[in-house]
Each structure stands twice: as structure tokens, then as C-alpha cells.
Amino acid sequence: MNQDWEDRVAAAWVTFDDHSGERAADFRAVIDALVAELPEGSPLGPFERACAWDSTGHSDRAVPLYREALALGLDGYRGRRARIQLSSSLRNIGRPEEGVELLTPELDAPPDELDDAVRATLALCLSSLGRDREGLALVLEALAGHLPRYRRSMTNYARALIAPEG
Predict the structure, then answer these.
(1) By the 8 A CB rule, do 47 and 82 touch?
(2) Are 115 and 149 part of one and the same domain?
(3) Does residue 116 share a domain with residue 69?
(4) Are 64 and 53 in contact (CB under 8 A)?
(5) What integer pLDDT is reported at residue 17 of this predicted model?
(6) d(C-alpha 140, C-alpha 86), whole Å
(7) Angle at Cα 87 formed by Cα 83 and Cα 88, nearest 5°?
(8) Residue 158 to residue 140: CA distance in whole angstroms
(9) 66 and 121 together in one domain
(10) Does the model's pTM come out above 0.85?
(11) Which candidate in 7, 20, 59, 160 could, as Cys together with 92 as Cys, close a disulfide (CB 3.0–4.6 Å)?
């Protein structure tokens, strides 16, 4: 879509906190109006609608929309966001194993600013499956990259958490 549309979507999201609680439907209506401007079959439509449903506490409504956006070819940065958010929503509706399956390949994706979000969301999914050590290892690994000191130690501790006992 064009930059004007992108700017209006971004502006709508800036107002999100003004639409909490009983006004959540108003926010979704703003997003729906913007989506109505998109060409038929655009993956941006279901993605933005999924984000709106998800952010207003309806992961169950968001899941099929994220899936639709990805099926329509949503890729790049937004595609990665959709996979992260879909995994989180799947966890929220009691299907964390699907979140793990969806996000695990993202650990090998080219690095970007979403890497830590991938690890954090995957850690939550793993924790929901009782795999807390694996989740903690992911979070420590992500944190290690931001530490001015102890980076090597934290990275090694993260690896040790999931190393086979022997």
C-alpha cells in the first residue's frame, strides 16, 4: 500500500491506548475502515485486523486472521511479526505446541530487531509446555547480547541449561 495508508495505520495504533476496555470495538472499527481501502487479497488486511483483535484481548479471533495473512503471502518484517504474534495467540488459546512449531525455524532466520521477541515468545510457549529450562535458555541468550559485561558467561549458562547431561 502507499505511504499515506501506512501513516494512517501507524497513527491509528498511536491512539490504541485511548480505546481500551469498552472502546476496543471503536478501535477495531478504525482498523476495519483502513483495511477496507486495501485491494482484494492483500495480506495486510487480515494482518492488521488480527493485530487489532489480538491487542483487544481476542486471541481466538486473531489466530485465523494471522493464518490468512501468511497464506496470502505476508512476508518480510510483517510476516515475521505475524508469526511471533500468531505463536503468542496460539499459546493464549491453549495451543503452545503450535507456537513452538511456528517459531522454532525463526531462530535460524536472518537476524533483525525482532530476534529477542522471537526468543521471548518461544520461551513462553515452551514454558506453557513445561519446558522451562529451554525457555530460560532462550531468554538468557537474548539478554546476553544486551549486557555490557558477563555476555560470555550468560551465553555459556544458557547453553548449559539445555546441554545433554553427561
Answers:
(1) yes
(2) no
(3) yes
(4) no
(5) 85
(6) 23
(7) 120
(8) 6
(9) yes
(10) yes
(11) 59
Q: Is 106 found in the same domain as 52? A: yes
pLDDT in tens, the chain (166 residues): 699 999 999 999 999 888 777 889 999 999 999 999 999 999 999 999 999 999 999 999 999 999 999 999 999 999 999 999 999 999 999 999 999 999 999 999 999 999 999 999 999 999 999 999 999 999 999 999 899 999 999 999 999 999 887 5
Grid cell at residue 123: 520461551
Quote the pLDDT of residue 166: 59
Residue 12 grid cell = 491509528
Q: Please give the angle made by the CA atoms of 86, 7 and 4, to the nearest 5 degrees.
A: 120
Q: Which amino acid is at 99?
A: G
Q: Count the Cβ atoms, other than its own, within 10 Å of residue 76.
A: 8
Whether residue 79 sits in one domain with residue 124: yes
